[in-house]
Amino acid sequence: MDTPTDQPIDYDNGPNEWSNEISSFYQNLNLDPDLYYCIDKLPRYARVVGFDYRINHISDPLTTQPPLKKYKLEDSKLPTQENTVQDNDKLNIAFKTDIQNLTSLSSQLEKEVGCQVSISNTILGLLRISNGKAKINSSNLYKTGKIIGFDLSSAIAAISLDVKPNDHVLDLCCAPGGKLLFIADKIHSHGAPHSLCSGSVTGVDISKKRLSTCQSLIKKSKSQSKIRIRLFASDGTTFNVPPPEDSWWDYSTLKQQSCKKLQPKEVPIDSISTPNIKPFFSSKLLRNIYTPPLEITADTRIRKYNKVLVDAECSHDGSLVHLSKYINSNSQSIFGKLDSDFLSQDRLESVSELQLDLILNGWNNLSTGGTLVYSTCSLSYKQNELVIAKFLETVFKNSSR
Ligand SMILES: C[S@@+](CC[C@H](N)C(=O)[O-])C[C@H]1O[C@@H](n2cnc3c(N)ncnc32)[C@H](O)[C@@H]1O
């Protein structure tokens, strides 16, 4: 994990009235209460748009050679399967090019924001900006769509899905869409959709308001990866729309199969394979998906998602950014307000029930051999370990998978 800061913690100038409450809350969770004194000292992160994000296995990217066994290019970039000398050369060249690009972007950003910027040693494709308050949105790199602010923890959750270029990904609680766009960008870093890179991202959220924000984010994005995205305003605990066909991107096949002209806004629906639900937002190609009647069988629902992200609704108590809004609000009892808004017993009970229902439905939508990631920004046992324990108990009781 990247270290938050090299500077000593300034306890004297730390927050006062809320600190005891927060400290005891964290002590009860066996966490270091000093975390909260670090708020102003934490770095921030930006991701390089269109990068093939991956775990950074090396400590010093500038001096170390890539560990070739771990550093594998996706199949679409490297069709030869064996790690021949030639392949190793290609890996080395690709790796060096990536590092050169990241280094060049780091120095550009450093000049623009006036503080130290380095390549994240956790995830390749992220830049670590030493001053957490640096205004990256006024930099040219942001304005020209080359970088975008993104939390390291969000990147870790999304990268854990291990998304491949042909994966259909379901993001069950997607708004406002930071991880959704990150995943689409990762897939799209392998080029425009083609047979070896036909991945798509389906985002679902129950809140239309938050989905509108997500839609604006997608529209504002300068990345072409938006062609791979569709959004549904739906309850993630019951959502069951299958992923698009692998050939969704091939407009000519699509036309042949349908044997009729699709109107731009037409969404062909059949009762078995595509439940009657229109996307809230969709790229034109994904909107026109047509499932050929021949393939409609009782087991059409076997077509499921390769990867499912359940970034569940939660009490937000683990998000420093979220808590800092309370801290800055001059409230008398900030923790009390946080407690009533997010941590009250009633709310915690209902939120953990919702979390279990979400992860169970994520599982229902996951294909055999796929990967499901469950994440929250809470540190509470009830919303994390206990949800997972109940989930495992339920699925292993009821399933042969
Ligand atoms: C932690 S946020 C998701 C953040 C998002 N993944 C991102 O990276 O930007 C949780 C989201 O879950 C949504 N949500 C709450 N209940 C839901 C449900 N039953 N089905 C789907 N989404 C739900 C909320 O509207 C909220 O947008």
From TrEMBL:
Gene3D superfamilies noted in UniProt: Vaccinia Virus protein VP39
GO MF annotation: an example: RNA binding
Active site: 377
Keywords annotated in UniProt: Methyltransferase, RNA-binding, S-adenosyl-L-methionine, Transferase
Domain SAM-dependent MTase RsmB/NOP-type, first and last residues per copy: 59-401
Annotated coiled-coil segments of the chain: none
A single BP term in Gene Ontology: RNA methylation
Presence of keyword Transcription: no
InterPro entries to which the protein is assigned, alphabetical: MeTrfase_RsmB-F_NOP2_cat, MeTrfase_RsmB-F_NOP2_dom, RCMT, SAM-dependent_MTases_sf
Alphabetical list of Pfam families matching this protein: Methyltr_RsmB-F
Binding residues for S-adenosyl-L-methionine: 173-179, 205, 235, 311
Domain of life: Eukaryota
Leader peptide range in chain numbering: none
Family, per entry: Belongs to the class I-like SAM-binding methyltransferase superfamily. RsmB/NOP family.
Listed name of the protein: tRNA (Cytosine(34)-C(5))-methyltransferase
Source species: Smittium culicis
